[in-house]
């Protein structure tokens, strides 16, 4: 899951506009290097979405599947489900759900040391705090293909 936290507390809508205008925005802004994180706070949240997609699918050209006179979806049903009649779609519902909480969260620690080196080594950059205490966008991205599987935003991220 990737979280895009705007710098400004009221910057979510400007960020959303940028994301919508550039199809590669998310890919271009994914982190390329590890960053030491100090204070990390992300609120627990649960979101769900449900919608009847029948009209959208028909507008996209999937009309015959809904037409009882033309559709024949009997091959998609269990034997006898149509009672000898041809089957057609009546409704297509889409539901999505995401929950982010402390369960399953893993913590990792990394300790590094440099021994016996005579070259000057600059100090590591200071840790970056990530506190999602104002509206943010999030994406669930499949790592191998880079496909965005789920996208959303949280408008009221009240942190407990």
Task: Characterize the structure shown.
The protein is an alpha+beta fold and 160 residues long. It has two domains: 2-52 and 96-154, Roll (Alpha-1-antitrypsin, domain 1); 54-91, no CATH class. The protein is built from three helices and seven strands, in the order βααββαββββ. A three-stranded antiparallel beta sheet has the order 1-6-7, with helices on one face. Strands 2-5 form a two-stranded parallel sheet. A two-stranded antiparallel sheet has the order 3-4. One of its GO terms (molecular function) is serine-type endopeptidase inhibitor activity. InterPro entries: Serpin_dom, Serpin_fam, Serpin_sf, Serpin_sf_1, Serpin_sf_2.
Characteristic terms for this protein:
single chain; 160 residues; alpha+beta; Alpha-1-antitrypsin, domain 1; 2 domains; three-stranded antiparallel sheet; two-stranded parallel ribbon; 3 helices; 7 strands; 12% helix; Serpin_dom; Serpin domain-containing protein; Serpin_sf_1; Serpin_sf
Mean pLDDT: 77
Largest pleated sheet? 3 strands, antiparallel
List the uncertain runs: 104-119
* CATH secondary-structure class of the largest domain: Mainly Beta
Along the chain, the helix and strand elements come as EHHEEHEEEE
Task: Tell me the CATH superfamily of the largest domain.
Answer: Alpha-1-antitrypsin, domain 1
Number of domains: 2
- How do the strands line up in the largest sheet? 1-6-7
Content of β-strand: 25-35%
Q: How far from one another are the termini?
A: 21 Å
Structural class: alpha+beta
According to CATH, the fold-level topology of the largest domain is Alpha-1-antitrypsin, domain 1
> What value does the Rg take, in angstroms?
24 Å
- SS summary, helix count: 3
The beta-strand count equals 7
Specify the CATH architecture of the largest domain: Roll
Oligomer description: single chain
Organism: Lolium multiflorum (Italian ryegrass)
GO molecular function, one term: serine-type endopeptidase inhibitor activity
Protein name: Serpin domain-containing protein
Pfam family, one: Serpin
């Amino acid at each position: 899951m990737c979280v895009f936290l705007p710098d400004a507390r009221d910057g979510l809508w400007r960020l959303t506009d940028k994301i919508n205008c550039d199809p590669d925005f998310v890919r271009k802004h994914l982190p390329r290097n590890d960053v030491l994180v100090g204070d990390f706070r992300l609120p627990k949240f649960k979101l769900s979405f449900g919608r009847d997609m029948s009209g959208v699918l028909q507008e996209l050209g999937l009309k015959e599947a809904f037409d009882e006179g033309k559709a024949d979806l009997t091959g998609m049903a269990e034997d006898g489900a149509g009672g000898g009649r041809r089957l057609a779609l009546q409704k297509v519902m889409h539901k999505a759900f995401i929950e982010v909480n402390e369960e399953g969260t893993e913590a990792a620690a990394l300790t590094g040391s440099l021994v016996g080196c005579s070259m000057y080594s600059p100090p590591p950059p200071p840790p970056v705090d990530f506190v999602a205490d104002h509206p943010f966008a999030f994406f669930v991205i499949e790592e191998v293909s880079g496909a965005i599987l789920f996208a959303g935003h949280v408008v009221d991220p009240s942190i407990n």
